[in-house]
Amino acid sequence: MHGEVPPSGAHPLTVVQKQSRLRPFLVALALVGSACVVATRVPATSVVLITLDTTRADRLSPYGFRDAVMPALDRLAREGAVFDQATTVAPLTLPAHASLFTGLLPPRHGVRDNSSRSLSSDHVTLAEILRARGFRTAAFVGSTVLDPDRGLDQGFEVYRGVSSSRQRRADAVIDDAIRWLGGMSGAPFLLWAHLYDPHRPYEAPEPFASRHDPYVAEIAYADSQIARLLAALDERRLLDHVVVVVVGDHGESLGDHRETDHGVFLYESVLRVPFILRAPGLSPRRVTSLVRLTDVMPTILDLLGLPAPAIDGVSLINTMNGADPDLEAYAESLYPRHWGWAPLFALRSGRFKLIDAPRPELYDLARDPFEERNIVDDRPVLAKALRSRLRTLWGNGHLPTAPVVAVDLRARLAALGYVTGRFPASAERQQLPDPKDCAGTFESGRCR
Length: 448
Hints:
This protein is of the alpha/beta class.
């Protein structure tokens, strides 16, 4: 576990350089922060952020799932805001969390894959902003994908990764979180707990394993640990003074579109994630507008009365009050390149979603939520417009080169089931196999 360490951790910028980079933003905080309008009018003092790995929204009781009881999530939903159409930026843990903590899309923060380079110290994270304002900051994560050397430790004075093993259960993560809370003495804080349990292999403890299918059992077990954390906040009389956010990093295919788990495709089973927010003074509500993982950071800052830096995400305060921000949602998967297949990119605008692939796909999610009917030939003008906009976001052909994956990192990812093969030499996406044609061949890496 890290002790008192500078926000830059092991990154190349010195503490002085990091402080210099933050100074203009801190001036803005001082000038503007007190004037920010927040929806609740009851200022929050701290933040508890819980990220659920590999959790699709439609397997949670607040989203209508009826085959499992999830009391903690149901409580947060009753007492806060439930975002029905929250979407991630990538079906992989590291790039999704990098976007969550920076408010930036993957092409801007540069973390495009679990085996990608670590998040650069050039980017300002939520933890850095809050620590610079006097917040105590701690993170307890459940997977080696998010170990300190992956760059998300920036701004955390305490950051416990997984180290010797490849993952750890939610009870161990929450034990650490509760223990750390016990040392708080009135200072504002940011506490991040990452629960990896819904990720394969599904090995939930009893009684959850006997009550549900293996995947749902893991989510129900994670819910029981969230309940422990909420109880600890209640006991310390902190719950009514903190912003509590529960959000998924990405979903799980569970066989949809012939994908067993996640990482390759960009269908809603892996992009739509749960997002529940409870804050002081916030009355219960459901938000049906499209929102993004990049919006979490600026929303938290807004609820604390602090402005966000220039990022891709936006505050959802007005959205929670009924406004429709009419946002577009970008997503990408460069993971297919490890098999020598074409990377995928997606853009959702309103009810329509384009997946840019060698054979492009267009879906009307209002009429076809399971993405079973490709209407790209029926709406060529719309498809062309979305494709043009999408390619400006991901670089229009300028993809990162293959990362040099250290032997240790390769082994850590392989232990979790992730492939870290060689990228193809060809830079022409259209010349590479379409992952749709390769579905079901992930083990061999060969298209039929």
